[in-house]
C-alpha cells in the first residue's frame, strides 16, 4: 500500500511569493495534519483537517492556510513568503482524528527554500 | 516554551549494546507519548508509543518507559544495530488537543559497527 505522498519534493521561492504544497493521505485515512520542521528542531504543528474541516491550528500567522478536499487530500498554502519559512514541511495522515492510539503517519516532506 | 525536551543532541553506541534515549516533558496534561525515527530525506517513521496509564511498553528490540512523577520517558533499543542510526524524536499529545503532537528537538543516534 502507498504511504503518505507529498509534492513537490523540493521547492525554491523568493521572498514575497506564494507557495502551494500538496499531500495525499494513506488510502482510507480521513485526517491530514501539517507540520513545519526547521533545521535542528522537531516538527511543529501547523494545522489538522479531519473530515474536510479544520480541527486545530498551531501558532502560525494567517499567511498559512490549508484545506482538505473530498478525496481527503490536502493543500498547504503560504502567502508572502519570508526567509524564515524555509523548512521541511511534513504531512501526516491518520485513520480518524489522529488522537491517542490513532497513529499519525508521515510523508517524506517538501523541502522549501526561500531566497 | 519547550514542553518536550530531548537534552542530548547525539548519542554514539557500539553495535550490540543498549541505546537509551531520553525525553522530558513539562505539561502534566500530556497523556500519550510516541517515538519516531527519521532517516535523512525521509519523513518520521512511527516506532512505539505509550499511554500515560502504563509505565512500560515493549515491541521487539524497542521498549519505552514512562515515569510520570518525574515527567520523563526513555526509549531503550536492545541490541542496537547499525541500521538504527537515525534521528529519534520524542512526541507527546494531551487531553486538551489530543490530535496535536508536540515534538522534542531530536537525538541523533549513531550505532558503530
Describe this structure in words.
The complex is a heterodimer of chains A (115) and B (113). Chain A is an all-beta fold and 115 residues long. Chain A has strands spanning 5-7, 10-13, 19-24, 31-37, 44-50, 53-57, 64-68, 74-78, 87-94, 105-106, 110-114. In chain A, β4 and β5 form a beta hairpin. Chain B is built from no helices and 11 strands. Chain B is mostly beta strands and 113 residues long. In chain B, β7 (62-67) and β8 (72-77) form a beta hairpin. Classes of the chains: A mainly beta (115), B mainly beta (113). At the A-B interface, β4, β5, β9 and β10 of A face β4, β5, β9 and β10 of B.
Specify the biggest β-sheet of chain B: 6 strands, mixed
Query: Number of helical runs of chain A?
Result: 0
Helix content of chain B: under 10%
Quaternary structure annotation: heterodimer
Please state the average pLDDT score of chain B.
94
N-to-C SSE series of chain B?
Answer: EEEEEEEEEEE
Order of helices and strands of chain A: EEEEEEEEEEE
Q: SS-based structural class of chain B?
A: mainly beta
Instruction: Give the termini distance of chain B in whole angstroms.
Output: 38 Å
Q: Approximately how much beta-strand content do the residues of chain B carry? A: over 45%
Low-confidence sequence ranges of chain A:
none
> Largest protein interface?
A-B, 30 and 27 residues
Q: List low-pLDDT spans of chain B.
A: none
Backbone CA Rg of chain A: 13 Å
Short synopsis of the structure:
The complex is a heterodimer of chains A (115) and B (113). Chain A is an all-beta fold and 115 residues long. In chain A, 0% of the residues lie in helices and 50% in strands.
List the helices and strands and how they pair.
The complex is a heterodimer of chains A (115) and B (113).
Chain A: E1 5-7, E2 10-13, E3 19-24, E4 31-37, E5 44-50, E6 53-57, E7 64-68, E8 74-78, E9 87-94, E10 105-106, E11 110-114
Parallel strand pairs in A: 2-11
Antiparallel strand pairs in A: 1-3, 3-8, 4-5, 4-9, 5-6, 7-8, 9-10, 9-11
Chain B: E1 4-5, E2 10-14, E3 19-25, E4 30-38, E5 45-51, E6 56-59, E7 62-67, E8 72-77, E9 86-94, E10 102-103, E11 107-112
Parallel strand pairs in B: 2-11
Antiparallel strand pairs in B: 1-3, 3-8, 4-5, 4-9, 6-7, 7-8, 9-10, 9-11
